[in-house]
Amino acid sequence: MTLLHLSFYSAFTLSALGLAFHRTHLISALLCLESMMLSMYVALSMWPIQTQSSSSAILPILMLTFSACEAGTGLALLVASTRTHGSDHLHNFNLLRC
């Protein structure tokens, strides 16, 4: 395993651990999701360079598109939940109550 692979795997793992253990604010969960998407984007961008192929060059652009949509949806949920509940603490949200 090269140092480049190790850095991508460690960035993704640290983001997943941050998402699993730091669940106090919605914004921190969204930042962890964005860092996971960023590490996957960088890994997909470096993959055609390492394999010397140009056939999968569209995958990073598609990943970046989905990441932008996910960020916009997450920020819209953050604004809506802050307006209705008064804060972005995840323990205030009750998904069973409509």
From TrEMBL:
<keyword id="KW-0249">Electron transport</keyword>
<dbReference type="GO" id="GO:1902495">
    <property type="term" value="C:transmembrane transporter complex"/>
</dbReference>
<keyword id="KW-0999">Mitochondrion inner membrane</keyword>
<dbReference type="Pfam" id="PF00420">
    <property type="entry name" value="Oxidored_q2"/>
</dbReference>
<keyword id="KW-0813">Transport</keyword>
<keyword id="KW-0830">Ubiquinone</keyword>
<protein>
    <recommendedName>
        <fullName>NADH-ubiquinone oxidoreductase chain 4L</fullName>
        <ecNumber>7.1.1.2</ecNumber>
    </recommendedName>
</protein>
<comment type="similarity">
    <text>Belongs to the complex I subunit 4L family.</text>
</comment>
<keyword id="KW-0472">Membrane</keyword>
<feature type="transmembrane region" description="Helical">
    <location>
        <begin position="61"/>
        <end position="80"/>
    </location>
</feature>
<dbReference type="GO" id="GO:0005743">
    <property type="term" value="C:mitochondrial inner membrane"/>
</dbReference>
<dbReference type="GO" id="GO:0042773">
    <property type="term" value="P:ATP synthesis coupled electron transport"/>
</dbReference>
<keyword id="KW-1133">Transmembrane helix</keyword>
<keyword id="KW-1278">Translocase</keyword>
<dbReference type="GO" id="GO:0030964">
    <property type="term" value="C:NADH dehydrogenase complex"/>
</dbReference>
<dbReference type="GO" id="GO:0016651">
    <property type="term" value="F:oxidoreductase activity, acting on NAD(P)H"/>
</dbReference>
<keyword id="KW-0679">Respiratory chain</keyword>
<dbReference type="InterPro" id="IPR001133">
    <property type="entry name" value="NADH_UbQ_OxRdtase_chain4L/K"/>
</dbReference>
<keyword id="KW-0496">Mitochondrion</keyword>
<feature type="transmembrane region" description="Helical">
    <location>
        <begin position="28"/>
        <end position="49"/>
    </location>
</feature>
<keyword id="KW-0812">Transmembrane</keyword>
<dbReference type="GO" id="GO:0098803">
    <property type="term" value="C:respiratory chain complex"/>
</dbReference>
<dbReference type="GO" id="GO:0008137">
    <property type="term" value="F:NADH dehydrogenase (ubiquinone) activity"/>
</dbReference>
<keyword id="KW-0520">NAD</keyword>
<dbReference type="InterPro" id="IPR039428">
    <property type="entry name" value="NUOK/Mnh_C1-like"/>
</dbReference>
<comment type="function">
    <text>Core subunit of the mitochondrial membrane respiratory chain NADH dehydrogenase (Complex I) which catalyzes electron transfer from NADH through the respiratory chain, using ubiquinone as an electron acceptor. Part of the enzyme membrane arm which is embedded in the lipid bilayer and involved in proton translocation.</text>
</comment>
